[in-house]
Amino acid sequence: MNVSTTLQAKDLQKQIDHVFEVSDRSTENLSRAWDSSRGAPVFTERGVYTTRGWTEWTQGFQFGNQIYLYDATQAKHWLTRARDAIVAQMYPHLTHTGVHDHGFNNVSTYGNLLRLMKEGRIEGSEWEAEYYRLALRVTGAVQASRFTRLPDGLGYVPSFNGAHSLFSDTIRSMRALAVSHMLGGVLMGEQDERVNLLTRIVEHAETTARYNVYYGEGRDTYDVRGRVVHESLFNVASGSYRAPSSQQGYSPFTTWTRGHAWVLCGYPELLEYLDTLDDSDYVGPAYLPTLQSARDRFLAVASAAADFYLEHTPTDGIPYWDTGAPGLVHLGDWRSTAADPFNVYEPVDSSSAAIAAQGLLRLGRYLMKHSDGSTSRSDLGKRYYQAGLTAAEALFQAPYLPEDTDHQGILLHSVYHRPNGWDHEPDSSRVPRGEACMWGDYHLLELAVYLKREIDGGAYLAFFNI
Predict the structure, then answer these.
(1) Taking the domain 9-456, which CATH number applies?
(2) What pTM, to 2 d.p., does this model score?
């Protein structure tokens, strides 16, 4: 990346306003056209949202977008629509035991509404607030119940693929366990065993850090520091690690950039959450016995991922869909120029950038806050933060925002599942481009709201401010 050292959040004000204009128009287009009996919208084809029967992991983003539009514009019709839709359609997601997506679906909806109530941004009765609290207590416990235990106190919330499968994506669903724990939630097991949700968060985060992220040393001397594998496979009978894998990337030995972005966003958010705890609140496993040991470990993970992103992303901060995609060889030194979503060899994935940019901003802020007089730590934090702004600047303008007033998406040039061929290819080059996805739209809006609040001096945007 070519990180801008002079860019400030306030310099993006006009672009952020434009993001909200586009989002309002596109979300209205989708709301008028979408038939809820079809399930959740996933990605667009020729500018029109369609669905894909894999798992229902995007509905929370659909209604979360409406909440963020209200957050940004105070347009009450978006709040009304979101509230009504969440009551009518989101309850099955609270008790869904077959997926790893509770943080995506339920914190984006019930969590965002409860956050706005706490901030005094929306009115509501205590009964309404308690409804949201109950939903969040439930979602965290149900997510935590989906757990594969490994030797040595490790374990993880497995993906929808089964108990053997650890996805990097799931680190951001730990927010479901976090809000549940904050609200007094607990998972009750056999013979009234009480499972501490904070402990389970740390167990999952350490297992992901140990097996899905590489550090270029020890076990990883053959590999590159900060690289992320999409999936790790385990023998569930013995608990032994078997192999790296990738569902949506090019290979297990390259980095699928959206999986990497989930790690880059998830660990800084976890660090921010741990900052709200006192030593007496922490109940961790033996390998991370203190709150500070957990913070140090997860900071190392986040920093490794951030450094990899800066080193393996085009100059504008928008990555291609996989850092080892075979067609990149035809683009020459693709890291020394801005990403080209119109090239005829490999697609970019703007959704990865929207997720990663937020992670870079949060990590940079965390390091600057915790510099403890260390110039090197403060400078590193500033670099990460400026990298987040650099990527945001690229995302908040053409060609990543649709000019077509009939388009139902917000963020263009995203990729869903390249190996399965699910993405729309507009011409004979067979390279997807020009389409949007629910998670990309949501994270672009979240990024814009995050920066708007900073510019306006508003409350800091964090999932745990409930």
Answers:
(1) 1.50.10.10
(2) 0.98
